[in-house]
């Protein structure tokens, strides 16, 4: 998925620079005020052109040989759809024979709403439930199972029933202008330190977001999950070296049983692409130290599931799904930012 990694991303990042210091000049027909609709329009139309309306597009698992964007997410496979809710639509994730994390994430044409339907839940939406428009963008996530067959079986369990199949009508934005404006906002963050806080950018309606963070989160993490569903540590402290090293962290407090919460670590080459066969492990496969902490190692050659093969300049991303308490997990992430990798003697 485009930009998913940076979605709930920089949830607590803050800078002392005012938003007014950054360039928000229009690009063609895209400007600061309409960018969120333009970005949604770009995503809605792109998906509809591939599969139409009310039709799934199921993606496969990421590997060294199968990756379409940098910093791909190995945790889940994605299923996407544009749904017409003008006459109502029902979304359901079954719990029977489905014991892994699986959700349907729903966004409207303003990149708002952010409804999450979990296992055993059913949600019905009409156009009146949206902040605008008659269509929604679906990004379902299914945790990868032990086998490809079981993963695909569970993808097929996802249920969406819509009472109308009218196509989404584009708003007339120039696609190149949308991409250029998106890159402008990303550049404001990456090169100039524009503040961005995920918690202030994802919300059900305009009252739940702050405009500055809302626009930047839309650019950085379109279709990203809100912090009550997933949080991300964007870098492993001390990453990049190729000597034998170890990282030990406290076990996070996630809803492991009720909602199928879990956590994982994925490593990438300096350019953001996966360049190793040993690039991923879930929390279950990290070394349990018996004291409330777990460990992973890098380039130690042990052959254990928690030992990564990394190259010079590598980067790692820790992903956490279904926190028990949002604020507690945000504080946990801040703690992790102070835990450096250690050399193994």
From TrEMBL:
Lineage, top-rank taxon, reads Bacteria
Q: Where is the signal peptide?
A: 1-19
Q: Which UniProt keywords apply?
A: Signal
What is the designated name of this protein? DUF1254 domain-containing protein
């Amino acid at each position: 998925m485009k930009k998913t990694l940076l979605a709930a991303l920089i949830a607590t990042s803050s800078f002392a620079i005012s938003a007014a210091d950054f360039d928000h000049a229009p690009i063609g027909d895209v400007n600061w005020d309409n960018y969120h609709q333009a970005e949604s329009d770009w995503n809605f139309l792109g998906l509809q052109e591939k599969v139409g309306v009310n039709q799934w597009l199921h993606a496969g698992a990421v590997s060294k040989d199968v990756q379409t964007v940098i910093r791909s997410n190995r945790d889940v496979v994605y299923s996407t759809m544009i749904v017409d809710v003008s006459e109502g639509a029902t979304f359901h994730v079954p719990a029977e024979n489905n014991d892994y994390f699986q959700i349907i994430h729903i966004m409207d044409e303003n990149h708002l709403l952010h409804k999450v339907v979990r296992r055993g839940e059913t949600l019905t939406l009409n156009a009146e439930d949206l902040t605008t428009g008659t269509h929604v963008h679906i990004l379902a996530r299914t945790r990868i199972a032990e086998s490809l067959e079981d993963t695909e079986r569970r993808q097929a369990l996802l249920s969406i029933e819509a009472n109308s199949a009218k196509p989404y009508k584009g708003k007339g934005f120039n696609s190149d202008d949308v991409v250029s404006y998106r890159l402008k906002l990303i550049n404001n963050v990456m090169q100039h330190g524009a503040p961005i806080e995920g918690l202030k950018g994802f919300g059900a309606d305009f009252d739940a977001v702050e405009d500055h963070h809302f626009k930047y989160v839309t650019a950085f993490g379109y279709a990203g999950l809100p912090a009550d569903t997933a949080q991300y540590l964007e870098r492993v402290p001390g990453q990049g070296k190729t000597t034998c090293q170890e990282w030990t962290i406290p076990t996070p407090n996630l809803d492991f049983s009720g909602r199928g919460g879990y956590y994982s670590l994925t490593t990438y080459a300096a350019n953001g692409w996966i360049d190793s066969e040993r690039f991923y492990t879930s929390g279950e496969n990290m070394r349990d130290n018996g004291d409330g902490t777990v460990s992973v190692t890098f380039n130690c050659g042990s052959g254990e599931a928690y030992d990564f093969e990394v190259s010079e300049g590598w980067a790692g991303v820790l992903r956490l799904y279904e926190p028990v308490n949002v604020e507690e997990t945000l504080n946990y992430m801040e703690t992790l930012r102070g835990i450096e990798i250690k050399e193994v003697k």
